[in-house]
Every structure is written in C-alpha cells, then in structure tokens.
Design brief:
20% helix; alpha+beta; 12-stranded mixed β-sheet; outer membrane lipoprotein receptor (LolB), chain A; 223 residues
C-alpha cells in the first residue's frame, strides 16, 4: 500500500538525520566502521530526542523541486515525525500515519510493521545489520570541511533508495547534511537545524488525537 511504502522510506531516511548528529573528531580520521560503531554506543545515551531539519527534494525525472521543514521526537520505541505532507505517530504499540492532503489517518500495528522493516529501536543502529558503509574522505560544503561517509543497503532492491550520504563536520562534532539517493531519480537532502538529546517530550506527543483533525477518515489496517 502507498502509505506503507512512504512510512518505511521516511523512517529510514530520517534515521539518517538523527543517527550522526554527535560524533568525535578523533574517530572521523579512522574508517567508517569505527565511526559508526562509536556512534551506536553514544546513541544509547541520547534518551528522549527532539530534532528539527530542513529537507530539499529534487525529482530529476519530473524536473520538480520542493523544500520543507520538519521535526522528529523519539523516546525509546515511541516516535513522532512531522514531515509536512505526512505526520507519523507511534506509541510503541500502534502507528498512526496522517496524510494532510486528503485528511486520512492510517492505523497499523507497530509490531507487524517492525517485522516488515520498521523498527524504531534500530533508528540509531541501522547500519549494523542493514547497511554496508564506506568512508569517502574529506570534502567541503559551503566552506566547511566535512567527512563524507556512504551507507549502502544490503537488500538494495527492497529499499526506495540506493545510497545514504552522511557529511560530518570534524570541528563542531555534528552532522552537516544527509543526502538520500533515490532509485527512481528522486534525491532528498536533509540539513539538521537543531538536535536535543535527553529532551523532555510529553507522552501525549506519541498519541494521535483525532479530535484535532475534524472530519478525518480513520483507516484501520490492523487485523
């Protein structure tokens, strides 16, 4: 189904934004495996997370470009993703996907979705089992020296993208950019604008309140 494909791709893509905001200058000079292994350990100390980002989508086939701002909240197996056209909310048991344009909300079982590749517990460690990595070296982005690391999905044919490019600033120890290279000519660039680990996120953030969306159609896909 369309919304399931969207959920899977967006969750993987946004995890690329969050997973490398904190890093170490000493590790960047080493190989990609060392960088990502250390980041896995550091991510375990994040606790609740709040982040904002700007995304730039370029569809080369349709000659279309779009820019939007978004935010993400994560607390253990609960998360909230504001993606502009879509809002995805999960309380650990249920996933709600709200599509703004049509005022529809799809309801899915979180455990079933995890079996299909959407497991929030792997947001910060997706490279351990799901990706090959490659250290590409030093480049510059708008005058800033950054380290370029690529992630390639092991089961590439099942993913809507073939490469995730990560760009890490050695001097500030934060990610400057993540670029997701789509299989069908659509590339999305994510620039992190803020990242707050150990954030105090209210529990109601992880519940979909239908009363705030008058006339919303609830489409329950659970068995």
């Amino acid at each position: 189904m369309k919304h399931l494909r969207i959920m899977k791709s967006l969750l993987f893509l946004l995890s690329a934004v969050a997973l490398v905001v904190l890093s170490s200058p000493a590790l960047i000079a080493q190989d990609a495996e060392s960088i990502l292994s250390r980041l896995s350990e550091e991510a375990k100390e994040y606790g609740s997370i709040e982040a904002t980002y700007t995304s730039y989508m370029v569809d080369k086939v349709s000659d279309f470009e779009a820019k939007q701002n978004g935010e993400i909240f994560i607390d253990d197996n609960q998360y909230y993703l504001d993606l502009g056209d879509y809002t995805i909310v999960c309380d650990g048991a249920t996933i709600w996907t709200y599509e703004t344009a049509v005022n529809d909300c799809y309801v899915d079982d979180a455990e079933a979705m995890a079996e299909d590749g959407m497991d929030p517990s792997k947001l910060f460690t997706i490279w351990e089992d799901d990706f090959k990595n490659e250290l590409k070296g030093a480049v510059e982005i708008e005058g800033r020296k950054v380290t370029h690391v690529n992630l390639y999905p092991n089961e590439g044919d099942d993913k809507p993208f073939h490469t995730i490019q990560l760009f890490i600033d050695e001097s500030t120890m934060e990610m400057v950019r993540a670029v997701v290279k789509g299989r069908e000519g659509t590339d999305v660039t994510y620039d992190v604008t803020s990242f707050t680990p150990r954030a105090k996120v209210p529990l109601e953030k992880f519940q979909f309140d239908a009363s705030k969306f008058p006339g919303v159609s609830i489409i329950d896909n659970r068995l």
